[in-house]
Design a protein that fits this description.
Helix content is about 35%, strand content about 15%. The chain is an alpha/beta fold. Helix 3 runs antiparallel to helix 10, helix 4 packs parallel to helix 10 and helix 7 runs parallel beside helix 8. This is Adenosylmethionine-8-amino-7-oxononanoate aminotransferase.
Length: about 425
């Protein structure tokens, strides 16, 4: 006999940890019965379902929506050949083709690819690569990373160490994590000019910090132009040019974490293009597979790859079991081709315009501190912490699914949302914030 929705949810609360959740006081969850296009079908508890536009694109990865026929076919076709083989001593066409495609589309001279299980792992690998690079160059004392406050790079140990140590989500691990070098958060505002006094003061402080710790630092790691889970915080591309100059001056490697920003989210295919600079190492994930399977990649320059390969150990010391999983590589290749076969930039620009218009009324609400939009990202920042359950319920009653956090009610919708669906998302967020007071 089919179990009731209440029965499933009871089992869930007894058995499962959800992200950043407690087993003793679990947050409410909703049972998904299906998903198609940009809509989730949620069990209503009475034998039916309710539809909601997924304004989160399943945590920013489902850019083409659910059950896209092209992506479905890519997975099914690969299953008919083989679903997985080890990548040690073996290779396969999906991995080779995907690596070639990533090298082709990235705007930087990044010509070598390491496939990973997840975005967090790609950051782990990038940091390990930077450390090995410095050892290979005879700089054994360069074991720390330089980054900025407000960043978020993942939940495994090396990424946790370069997340904001005070306002991030990992302060409980203080003392257990590697102590990195943190500079101030870049001044807010994507359109801030290069000669802005605040930006120049920030640059001077970063330069002094880099000079002071030059013999300790292996690389610089940041999320380009938009800090994601650290606060949906946009900053000027000029800051990236400052970091590139510091890296060149001191022999650091520049790592750009584009796990959230890659594949068009900020209006360019890769966010680094806003600054016109090239990283030494690039991390991508999330939208890489269109949300179908977990996969990430770390790309690097030939100089980095050859230096490490000719250094102690003679290899990059990492190798996940599910590295370059053929199913994930096949659907990732299909997702990239699908994205680039369309006017994705025009669609992201239309989403940006729709969010700007639709969220503008929220700026006048008493509870709202700021409203900001960058590419296909729309943010309503409150003056205090979000009542997550109250806002979630209020938005859902308006036919939209969001997942607020901290003081933010935000959306990063699928690119395939229509103008009408974007308007619905914006109106739902604005209406819910107004209702919650």
């Amino acid at each position: 006999m089919t179990q009731s929705v209440g029965g499933w949810l009871q089992q869930d609360s007894e058995l499962l940890w959800h992200p950043y959740s407690s087993l003793s006081a679990p947050s409410p969850v909703r049972l998904v019965r299906g998903a198609e296009g940009v809509r989730l079908h949620l069990d209503d508890g009475a034998g039916g379902t309710v539809e909601a536009i997924d304004a989160m694109a399943s945590w920013w990865c489902m850019i083409h929506g659910y059950r896209h026929p092209v992506l479905d076919a890519a997975v099914k076709n690969q299953v008919d050949d083989f679903s997985h083989v080890m990548f040690g001593g073996l290779t396969h066409e999906p991995a080779i083709r995907l690596a070639a495609r990533l090298v082709e589309i990235n705007p930087s001279p990044l010509e070598h690819v390491f496939f990973c299980d997840s975005g967090s792992v790609s950051v782990e690998v990038a940091i390990k690569l930077a450390l090995q690079y410095q050892v290979a160059r005879g700089h054994n004392g360069r074991t720390r990373m330089l980054t900025v406050r407000g960043g978020y790079h993942g939940d495994t140990f090396a990424p946790m160490s370069v997340c904001d140590p005070v306002n991030g989500m990992h302060s409980l691990f203080t003392g257990a994590l590697k102590e990195q070098v943190f500079g101030p958060q870049p001044p807010a505002g994507f359109d801030r000019p290069d000669d802005d006094p605040e930006l120049l003061a920030w640059a001077a402080e970063l330069a002094a910090l880099a000079e002071r710790h030059a013999d300790e630092i292996a690389g610089i790691i940041v999320e380009p132009v938009l800090q994601g889970a650290g606060g949906m915080y946009p900053y000027s591309p000029a800051c990236l040019r400052v970091l590139r100059e510091l890296a060149d001056q001191h022999g650091f490697l520049l790592i750009l974490d584009e796990i959230a920003t890659g594949f068009g989210r900020t209006g360019t295919l890769f966010a680094s293009e806003h600054a016109g600079i090239d990283p030494d190492i690039l991390c991508v994930g999330k939208a890489l597979t269109g949300g179908y399977l977990t996969l990430a990649a770390m790309l690097c320059t030939t100089d980095v790859a050859q230096t490490v390969s000719n250094g102690p150990g003679g290899a990059l010391m990492h190798g996940p079991t599910f590295m370059a999983n053929p199913l994930a590589c096949s659907v990732a290749l299909a997702s990239i081709d699908l994205l680039l076969s369309q006017d994705w930039a025009g669609r992201v620009a239309a989403i940006s315009a729709g969010l700007s218009t639709g969220l503008a009324p929220a700026a006048s609400l008493p509870a709202v501190k700021d409203v900001r939009v960058l590419g296909a990202v729309g943010v309503v920042q409150l003056g205090g912490p979000v009542d997550i359950q109250r806002i979630t319920d209020a938005v859902l009653r308006r036919g939209v699914w969001v997942r607020p956090f901290r003081d933010l009610v935000y959306t990063m919708p699928p690119y395939v949302c229509t103008d009408e669906e974007i308007a619905t998302i914006a109106a739902a967020i604005t209406g819910a914030v107004e209702e919650a007071g």
